[in-house]
């Protein structure tokens, strides 16, 4: 291998053309199926599909209005009659009681233990009955075909699509979760570079479920388990494909491979970005920053890299993929992800040990093998999704995994989103880096002409992220305040709607329970005068049993709105129910508003003599 030695110990190596095979597409280990019913305009019958032993009825003709005419934007979310007209008095009473129970701290805190104890005392039958009359009945669609079909049909009749979510979760002990995590995140090889603490596993944070209530956590239990997960997803995709055009399945990448690879790849990307900033400076938006050959030479000299003009010309030409005369972040990322030996470019001599160290870590052979296995699984899912006309939405996870997840998703988009949106990424607006991340990926999609699919959320891991950053002494990745997160959400929402207005090839889901965000999205759609066709590229998402006063009016007005609809046996969805209870516990969670609206509607019906009200 040819090497050129420079002063200050930094060396440049010859570029090689070896590529890391990054292809692919994901789904999530949980069965998250979004059944988008807008595409079922011509179907008048419910369709059954076999899904892990459960036949699932599909919605009929919800959301089909938006395509034809502009959906109204000034929706009244305080209209309790409209919000709850799909619910019987019993369902309203049950919902109000469930939210009331969520305010009892002791019950929420010890929910799992209490449920297990109750089951022992009351027996299975009575336990199931009581759960049906409370949390399970409210938050979960059921466990068999008829139960699930009932819920999905009802949503459909009110203009709401369903994203079926196989909500079964293993109730791992803290000890087991910690062991699984530490075993699966530690590399067998001692790294030849200085590692970043942030991308290393730490026992005190290894049970990733701690302080995370609104998202499910997967632990690596071996390659066979990952294959099982993939097979479950394949079945889901088949089920969605058999029943809809353009339905959805959702995926968490941590379900499909060893998380150590995600940590390692994230570290490579993070170090790569820092190195890029040393060349291009820190002025302006990251996506607009770039350097030309002169700057490259100057900065390289400042960093202590000596090279001849010929050499610098050669290196620069190699990096400048589109011959623009500049290297920007897109060029740079491309080099990092695709060229294994890119890391060989930047090697320093450690003055203490005299050893060579790469500024950019390289993958070991084992890590490359792990990566390939994960990508093969994801690719299989993507291929199947493409064949079946299903879209895959990839969840965003913790920041120490997210750079890798996002990068893989973009590679999948590049491969599969050529003609339409098959793959959707997720952007967490509580991150300080959210705007840079979204704008860089949007720019890549524009430059390469593929469809950009995304879900916009605030983010589910705030407390975990903050505490980890504090204890490990790295910068808190989260926005300083809730207001900053809100501002960021609105800003990114607007960027995406403006992009759609300009004819951009994009599909965006605003996944939020925040009424102000939904209103802001609607008013921006109105202000920008999006055509019905453009509105067809915009979706809203909420969970079953949450914020019906937002979901149903949206659906009835003709907007494309979806509920995550979890299903599974009572015993096995308890962790999911426990998290829902925790989420609705705080006074600030929004459930207090919902609770009061539910009671008001119940009182109104009783005063009106609608004791046997039948949902329309
Ligand atoms: C359909 C759907 C899909 C989702 N998918 C994902 C996903 O893939 N990945 C993911 O991470 N989450 C996901 N979430 C969860 C989401 O990120 C939020 O945690 C949750 O929806 C609450 O946010 P909100 O916008 O609904 O409402 P709000 O209640 O208005 O916002 C609460 C959120 O604001 C932020 N926040 C609160 N306090 C502060 C503070 N002091 N400083 C900074 N920020 C603060 C946090 O993100 C918090 O979760 C999803 C949610 C839904 C409904």
From TrEMBL:
Pathway entry: Amino-acid degradation; L-proline degradation into L-glutamate; L-glutamate from L-proline: step 1/2
Any GO BP: L-proline catabolic process to L-glutamate
Keywords, alphabetical: FAD, Flavoprotein, Oxidoreductase, Proline metabolism
Cofactor(s) the protein requires to work: FAD
InterPro entries for this protein: EF_Hand_1_Ca_BS (IPR018247), FAD-linked_oxidoreductase-like (IPR029041), Proline_DH_dom (IPR002872), Proline_oxidase (IPR015659)
Purpose of the protein: Converts proline to delta-1-pyrroline-5-carboxylate.
Descriptive protein name: Proline dehydrogenase
């Amino acid at each position: 291998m040819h090497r050129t030695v420079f002063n200050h110990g930094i060396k440049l190596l010859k570029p090689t053309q070896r590529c890391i095979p990054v292809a692919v597409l994901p789904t999530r280990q949980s069965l998250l199926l979004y059944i988008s019913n807008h595409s079922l305009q011509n179907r008048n019958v419910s369709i059954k599909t076999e899904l892990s032993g459960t036949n699932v009825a599909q919605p009929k003709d919800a959301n089909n209005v938006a395509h034809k005419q502009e959906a109204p934007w000034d929706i009244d979310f305080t209209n309790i009659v409209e919000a709850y007209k799909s619910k019987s008095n019993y369902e309203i009473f049950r919902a109000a009681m469930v939210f009331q129970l969520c305010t009892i701290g002791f019950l929420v805190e010890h929910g799992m233990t209490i449920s297990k104890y109750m089951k022992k005392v009351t027996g299975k039958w009575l336990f199931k009955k009581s759960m049906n009359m409370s949390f399970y009945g409210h938050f979960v669609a059921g466990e068999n075909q008829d139960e699930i079909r009932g819920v999905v049909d009802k949503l459909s009749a009110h203009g709401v699509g369903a994203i079926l979510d196989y909500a079964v979760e293993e109730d791992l002990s803290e000890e087991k979760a910690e062991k699984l995590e530490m075993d699966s995140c530690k590399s067998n090889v001692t790294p030849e570079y200085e590692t970043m603490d942030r991308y290393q596993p730490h026992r005190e944070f290894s049970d990733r479920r701690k302080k995370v209530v609104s998202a499910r956590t997967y632990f690596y239990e071996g390659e066979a388990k990952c294959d099982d997960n993939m097979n479950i997803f394949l079945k889901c995709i088949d089920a969605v494909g058999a029943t809809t055009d353009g339905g959805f399945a959702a995926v968490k990448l941590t379900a499909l491979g060893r998380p150590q690879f995600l940590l390692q790849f994230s570290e490579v990307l993070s170090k790569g970005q820092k190195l890029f900033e040393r060349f291009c400076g820190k002025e302006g938006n990251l996506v607009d920053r770039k350097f030309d050959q002169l700057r490259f030479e100057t900065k390289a000299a400042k960093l202590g890299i000596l090279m001849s003009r010929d050499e610098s010309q050669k290196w620069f030409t190699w990096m400048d993929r589109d011959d623009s005369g500049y290297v920007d972040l897109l060029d740079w990322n491309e080099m990092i992800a695709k060229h294994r030996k890119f890391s060989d470019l930047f090697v320093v001599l450690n003055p203490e040990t005299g050893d060579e160290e790469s500024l950019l870590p390289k993958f070991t052979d084992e890590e490359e093998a792990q990566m390939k296995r994960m990508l093969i699984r994801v690719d299989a899912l993507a291929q199947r999704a493409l064949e079946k006309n299903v879209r895959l939405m990839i969840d965003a996870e913790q920041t120490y995994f997210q750079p890798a997840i996002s990068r893989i998703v973009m590679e999948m988009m590049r491969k599969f989103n050529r003609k339409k949106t098959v793959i959707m990424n997720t952007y967490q607006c509580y991150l300080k880096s959210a705007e840079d991340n979204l704008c860089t990926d949007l720019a890549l999609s524009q430059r390469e002409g593929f469809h950009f699919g995304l879900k916009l959320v605030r983010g589910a891991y705030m407390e975990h992220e903050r505490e980890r950053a504090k204890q490990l002494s790295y910068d808190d990745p989260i926005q300083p305040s809730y207001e900053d997160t809100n501002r960021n959400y609105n800003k990114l929402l607007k960027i995406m709607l403006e992009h759609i207005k300009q004819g951009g090839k994009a599909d965006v889901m605003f996944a939020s329970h925040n009424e102000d965000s939904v209103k802001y999205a609607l008013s921006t759609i109105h202000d920008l005068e999006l055509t019905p066709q453009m509105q067809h590229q915009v979706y809203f998402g909420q969970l079953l049993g949450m914020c019906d006063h937002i979901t149903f009016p949206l659906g009835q007005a003709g907007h494309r709105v979806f509920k995550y609809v979890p299903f599974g046996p009572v015993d096995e969805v308890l962790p999911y129910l426990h998290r829902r209870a925790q989420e609705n516990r705080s006074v600030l969670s929004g459930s207090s508003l919902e609770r009061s609206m539910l009671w008001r509607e119940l009182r109104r019906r009783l005063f009106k003599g609608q004791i046997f009200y039948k949902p329309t």
